[in-house]
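Many introductory courses stop at the sequence. We go one step further.
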Amino acid sequence: MGRIIPVILCGGSGKRLWPLSKADLPKQFLNLTDPETSLFQKTVQRASDLTGATLNETIIVTSSRYTDMVTAHLRKPCPHIISEKEARNTGPAIARAADYASRHFSADDLILVLPSDHYIEDEAPLYLALKTAISEAYKNRIVLFGITPHRPETGYGYIKIDPENPLSVDSFTEKPDAATAHDFLLSGQYLWNSGIFLFKASAVLNEFRLYEPQIITHIEDDAKLPSISFDK
């Protein structure tokens, strides 16, 4: 079995928790749950705990405006920081990370994509889900981790699944209104979209070539890349 390369997405505009967060200090760099540790630092530790990877085996995708902040929060050198001059959403960010991993590690390694601003109180369920996901990812499937909703939240994306086949995603809905979110909760057919993914680098690059070839064509040129979410 090959290794798992964590990819930490560390972008954002700093608007979600304004005025605590701001353009030059997005929420992943705030010490919201621990006076000594930022959400980003917790994510770096989570990546290591889940995969056993060191910073030498971790890829961080961030905005060029946050590169110095990322370096300061890491406290140790990370040789694999991808700095984007222009933000183009998670699609191009993940494509770049997969391309980078295939060239610097192996195209057959698994990639675990983690947002940098999550707070996860109990990580045991995520670890168990990862163990199940690994075998699926080695079948060239793109695995998305869902969260069982416990309230009709309008600020999250939703994944529709077949309760009899939860390994298959039917559709995505981004930030529904309150009535729709309530219906989703009652139906039992929807999960919150965690933004956490697992896949082989080669598998996801093949999907980009098939469905979003312009991302592969312009992977080194921010100005020509489309702005598109990975789960679209």
